[in-house]
Write a structure and sequence with these properties.
protein phosphatase regulator activity; ARM-type_fold; 3-stranded antiparallel beta sheet; 46% helix; protein phosphatase binding; SAPS; Protein phosphatase 6, regulatory subunit 3
């Protein structure tokens, strides 16, 4: 908050702009030129809006810097020019978007020969993108007048910045009608067909990758837009072109009718996988497919399947003869040949084709034995988990999918569902059961000899569990059970022994391990507890819960075998060791740990005093108290009980007390006092001199001393209560009718700081002490039992002051 003290300084740009011959480069050399521009400094904005300055800014981002410029400052001015033009200042946007000469100069960058300078291309794309967002109608009209715009964009599609600009034209145009006009214009310019032509072996990898990514993004953006805009009746023209059978056939012919090129093959497969995406969320947070699954944007177009089906044999051949790969040496051995990106993507494509569950596609895969080849790769490349997960997906879908209806027949038209041909092929031709058992035994043998556990064992466990689950509860359970029963006797017995012993033991171990790994893998967010998987029903009474979803850890035994007696003995020994540090073995002083009984000193033995006493005087007169068990009940017949003479005032014949022999109160009486101060308990009044003082509860030690004179009397009391040792003295002056109360308190040992709480825990109710009010200004005191302060600062008119 420097402006509060007027510490901000005026920008040097204002002073610089006052010069008549200032140049654009001089202004751009200032460190705060970008901040001042975004803050819309009027002098700076007016300077930049000059025709020559605007032209120079566009020139900086569209022309190669001179080769003579030092490399570290070579792109300084192009970078600052791009930032100034994209600072989102309305005056600059208006001038650049409405001046056709500047647009033509900017557009001229696309006419450079490929490859474009990637840094300048990013500057050009950024400036044109913000113009498309701020001035869509002007920029679209300008670009549509250029007949070579789409050609130049396709020509430079190998530059990532140009690909981003093409996609921004599909996303940054807000008016719906204008966006639809742009899509129709691009479709008329055959942008889809031109991008498809870029994905062929004759082009380089950059064009393959960017063209494929552009087509994939067009598919996703178009489907998302159709889902979000519910009232849109017209289909997306670019998506419709991409889903045509001839477009897909052209894609496939580019990779199969020419030389094998891994980059082109992978790029085409990526496009096909995007076309097969039927359950992709339309936006973040939408986890399920919308109700309109029958809508063409949420189901695989039949024309795509028709174009792919004749090429399944070519993809199958790629599994057998992939593009030539060099021998790959790894830490555990040599891969000759390695799996390669081509075969891995072919397996992903097969998984997508199986998900479509089309009869003709399934029959083609069965005839070619594609699943058998994939299983061979699974057991051969034991460390490639990218391959293993795709094979697991394939087997899981085959086991769980209902039988595919014949082509041209709807699911509801068939009376009795036939058996799944894929499951029969998987169990009989591929011999999945036998291969699982053999691989498991081979791994156990290898581990017994000191080898490592094979990398596919985790996925193999899940495949075996999928078979067991679907045979019991799946839609094809009867068929799976029948196929297992038809196995040779030896294979069937091996399978049953495997699932009852090895598989069961593995599942038990995994249940214990994964019960907590699920917790550790959760993302730490604000609603972490809600995401973990518990619900309110799991915390209700078990009788009210019908189904508890989190039942995997029900069989886990968390019992711990501990030796309680040994732990208790160790704890007591440690306590004694710590307490011993505070004790002095050679000292003759009293043991501070012993419980004290209440002891009252006879008046004849009290030490005389001429004034008020302090804590030091009172502690000298403390006597050795007898030890008593704090839990032992008090015996009313012991010597501690106070003796009271009742014969002098009690008349046994009448049953009434006789007070006629009492003399009037005298101020000089040593046993009475005119002071308004008196000690009392919650039950009875306490004699200031301690003659009729009541018994103290067990666990307290009290020593009372008192002195008296004609005009002044004093009483001193020392109380030891747990960790607190208190000495209080009361001096009463009968002449001035005042009382002086002093209190001294200190802790004996930290360990006894909770002694008052211990009394409550033992069932002993601490004595609640009240005191008559003292004159204003007297110090506060504390309850000697519960160790709590109570206030004595209220006025004399109040009768009592309660203990806090």
């Amino acid at each position: 908050m420097f402006w509060k003290f007027d510490l901000h300084t005026t920008s040097h740009i204002d002073t610089l702009l006052e010069k008549e011959d200032v140049t654009l480069t001089e202004v751009m050399d200032e460190d705060d030129v970008l901040q001042e521009c975004k803050a819309q400094n009027h002098k700076l904005v007016d300077f930049l809006l000059r025709p020559q300055c605007m032209e120079d800014l566009v020139t900086f981002i569209t022309q190669e810097p001179s080769a003579d410029v030092e490399e570290k400052v070579k792109y300084k001015y192009p970078n600052i020019s791009c930032e100034l033009l994209t600072s989102d200042v309305s005056q600059i946007n208006d001038r650049l978007g409405e001046d056709e000469k500047l647009l033509i100069k900017l557009y001229g960058f696309l006419k450079n020969d490929p490859p474009l300078n990637p840094l300048l291309a990013s500057f050009f794309s950024k400036v044109l993108s913000i113009l498309i967002g701020r001035k869509p109608e002007q920029i679209v009209n300008f670009l549509r007048k250029r007949d070579d715009f789409v050609d130049l964009m396709i020509k430079h599609i190998g530059t990532s910045a140009i690909m981003d600009l093409l996609l921004r034209m599909l996303t940054c145009i807000e008016p719906q009608q204008l966006r639809h006009d742009v899509l129709n214009w691009l479709n008329e310019e055959k942008v889809i067909q031109r991008l498809v032509d870029m994905v062929q072996p004759s082009q380089d990898e950059d064009r393959h990758s960017n063209a494929s990514q552009s087509l994939c993004e067009i598919i996703r953006l178009s489907r998302d837009q159709m889902f979000q805009v519910q009232g849109c009746s017209e289909p997306d023209p670019l998506l419709a072109t991409l889903e045509k059978q001839e477009t897909v056939e052209q894609l496939l012919s580019n990779i199969f009718e020419k030389d094998k090129n891994e980059s082109a093959i992978v790029s085409v497969i990526q496009i096909l996988l995007t076309l097969f995406e039927t359950r992709r969320p339309a936006f973040e947070g939408h986890m399920e497919c919308p109700p309109g699954m029958s809508h063409p944007s949420f189901s695989v177009n039949h024309s795509i399947l028709e174009a792919v089906r004749p090429r399944i044999k070519d993809f199958h051949q790629l599994l057998l003869e992939p593009p030539k790969k060099n021998v790959l040496k790894t830490t555990w051995g040599v891969l000759d040949p390695p799996v390669g990106n081509t075969r891995l993507n072919v397996v992903r494509l097969v998984a997508s084709l199986l998900q479509c569950n089309t009869h003709s596609i399934n029959a083609e895969l069965i005839n070619l034995n594609t699943l058998g080849v994939i299983l061979d790769m699974y057991f051969k490349y034991i460390w490639n988990n990218f391959l293993h997960i795709q094979v697991e997906i394939c087997t899981a879908m085959i086991l769980a999918m209902p039988p595919a209806p014949p082509d041209g027949q709807l699911d509801g038209e068939q009376e009795a569902a036939p058996e799944s041909a894929l499951i029969k092929h998987l169990f009989q031709t591929c011999q999945l059961i036998q291969r699982i058992v053999d691989a498991w035994h081979s791994n156990e043998k290898e581990q017994a000899e000191g080898g490592r556990r094979r990398g596919y064992m985790g996925h193999l466990t899940r495949i075996a569990n999928s078979i067991v689950h679907n045979s019991d509860k799946g839609p094809n359970g009867l068929q799976i059970q029948g196929l297992i029963s038809e196995l040779p006797t030896e294979d069937r017995e091996n399978w049953e022994a495997f699932i009852s012993v090895q598989l069961a033991d593995t599942n038990k171990r995994n249940t214990v391990d994964l019960a907590f790994s699920d917790y550790q893998m959760q993302q730490m967010t604000s609603n972490f507890i809600e995401q973990f998987g518990f619900n309110d029903e799991e915390f209700a009474d078990q009788d009210d819960v019908v189904d508890i979803p989190f039942d995997r850890i029900s069989d886990i035994n968390f019992s711990l075998n501990t030796n309680e007696s040994a732990n208790i003995a160790l704890f007591e020994a440690r306590c004694k060791e710590k307490i011993q540090q505070f004790e002095d073995a050679g000292s003759d002083e009293e043991d501070i740990w012993n419980e004290k009984d209440v002891t009252f000193v006879p008046e004849a033995q009290r030490r005389p005093s001429s004034g008020s006493t302090d804590s030091e005087e009172s502690t000298d007169s403390e006597e050795e108290d007898t030890k008593r068990d704090p839990f032992e009940p008090c015996n009313p017949g012991t010597d501690d009980r106070m003796e009271v003479d009742t014969e002098a005032t009690w008349n046994s014949s009448t049953g009434w007390a006789d007070f006629s022999s009492f003399s009037p109160i005298c101020p000089k009486d040593p046993l009475r006092c005119n002071s308004p101060v008196a000690m009392e308990t919650s039950v009875e009044t306490i004699d200031p001199l301690g003659v009729n003082a009541p018994m103290r509860p067990d666990g307290e030690s009290t020593v009372v001393e008192g002195t008296s004179s004609l005009e002044q009397r004093s009483i001193t009391e020392t109380v030891i209560n747990g960790s607190m040792k208190e000495t209080v003295s009361l001096t009463v002056d009968a002449k001035t009718e005042t009382a002086v109360f002093k209190r001294f308190a200190y802790h004996i040992h930290p360990i006894l700081s909770h002694s008052a709480k211990n009394l409550s825990m033992l069932g002993k109710t601490p004595e609640i002490v009240k005191m008559s009010c003292f004159p204003v200004g007297s110090p506060p005191s504390r309850c000697p039992v519960v160790d709590a302060a109570f206030c004595c600062l209220i006025c004399l008119s109040e009768p009592q002051c309660n203990v806090i």
